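Sample log: Acetyl-coenzyme A synthetase.
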Amino acid sequence: MAQVTEGQTLWHASPDRLAAANITSYLNWLSDRDQTFDGYWDLWDWSTQDIPGFWKSLWEYFDIIAEGDLQEVMASAPMPRTRWFTGTRLNYTEHVLRHERTGDPTRVMLHHSSELRESATSSWAEIGGAVRRLATRLREMGLGPGDRVVGYMPNIPETVVAHLAVIAIGATWSSAAPEFGAQTVIDRFSQISPKMVFAVNGYRYGGKDYDRTGDLTQIMGALPTAEHLVMLDYLPSAAKTPGPCAAVIQTWDAMLDGLDIPCEHFEYTRVASDHPLWVLFSSGTTGLPKPIVHTHHGIVLEHYKSAAFHFEIGEGGALFFYSTTGWMVWNTLMWGPLMNGRAVLYDGHPAYPDARLLWRIAEQAQATVLGVSPTYIQMVRQQGIEPGKEFDLSALQSVMLVGSPSTPETFQWAHEAIKPDIWASSQSGGTEFCSGILAGSPLLPTRAGEIQAPELGTLARAYDEACAAVIDAEGELVIERPMPSMPLMFWGDSAFRRYEDSYFATYPGVWHHGDRVKFNTHGGSFVRGRSDATLNRFGVRIGSAEIYRTMEAIPEVLDSLVVCIEEPGGGYYMPLFVQMAEGAELTDEFRKTIAARLRSERSPRHVPDEIIAAPGIPATLTGKKMEVPVRKLLMGAAPESVASRDATRNPDVLDWFADFAAKRHT
């Protein structure tokens, strides 16, 4: 690849693409109502200043299905007690399935495959019909508004059906991926006391089968409120049910048995704007995960906005995000159907048998928007795969890079190895919003390594130590004004104590997200890493992303992790751990090469105090480097207090880091 510099312009939307963009249609709609805006930033200014006016316009533009008399678009109570569209009632599932009636009901709604199942499709009629049958059965069993229903299920159509059916009757959904160990699931679900559990008996990942009936026995034993367990026989080699439990066990097929219910004969339970939709959990690497509660109103509005204007999913388009059900990204897969398009599901290892897999699925489904992590792209690059040459990606319009900061080289690779006119956009958001904070827009140019803009309606800033907004300098990512998809509450935290302590303790009245970020003069941004994993070199803060950018360009290094800890007496210790590629060795000479690269490409402050070979880099189940747990280990914390093994993708590697830290303290 030709050398690329951070901030270098790589892409502009073509005139045809701009003319067909969802956001262009929205601007035209506003213009017809005597509200004219000159480009993205003019629109963004209005969306963050006239907040009720902006969100009310989305309510009308997307023709939200609701009943009741609107009292206030945005209540006057400050964050986190702000309420939205009070006096109205709606249902999330009703919006996801509304397009079943608007076209041929046999057209595809879901593409799906897994390591256990061949590629297949499900139509709008099939999914909608299954949702209505299951929802009706749930009502017959006495479930309804106020009840919690959880899924220990993979990313397959049955999970989508269960999720939509539970929400359709006004109950509250939550999910955990079956790769989560028993205690990780118990830590989550025990906080919300579910009445029903949907589960699979096992799954396959990377060619290996995992029977989960033993874990499920432990989980059910720790959930005394669970009256019903619905089992899906997903892994043929596993037992059909777990061991003895107090819940009544039903099969998935029995729950779906019944007469079809036409769309017009099914009534959704429309709920108020303070009614819990679902509970998402923080990653849970330390302590009990935070049970984050969202609302129907906030998510419907936020997901329409993000799907239409920041992902530009068009009618008939297909969204393919690689995700598990334990990550908030899974809850965004319905953006495709929400926009009268399709969603693509895959359950399994993203690079088994090699990293061509996701591109093959994208080709088969004719995906228009592909969401992957920069880590996956790094794997693709290391394997020498050129997707644009090997696969028919003519339908693919956008590649969204999510989960961690993306380097300029990753952006450039997308244009060279996929196709020149691809819209490669980095995104940064969070479980707290179940959406983005910093995202993209086709109205703006794409610059290498840079997130294009804050999302519409999102007044994001970088604050310095004096609580002042800064430009062209790193600061703490904050949000100054309310958004509808901010959490309603944490489950069981009715006094907002844990909520306020988590996000409002640093800057009273201002949301503190916990990321280090830099905004530049034209509005673009760079996320440098988590605040509590920020590298402090003798009082100067630097972001770990800067070091990773250099390390990713060194072919002998497969992966890396850097942390910085404060030493007694005011000193600092910054080790860099590297996982070497097969056949490569971390010699003293190679350490010097790494140090020289960091010194020349970054600065002397970026050179670590020590470069250490590690057998791997510990990561969460969603693929994020575990910088904070490693930092705490090196500061002397007990291994069991810094991370849950069940929430770690490679716990044996974390054990190695614990041993390393223990030896350092002896």
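Observation: The two ends are 47 Å apart (CA to CA).
Observation: The chain is about 30% helix and 25% strand.
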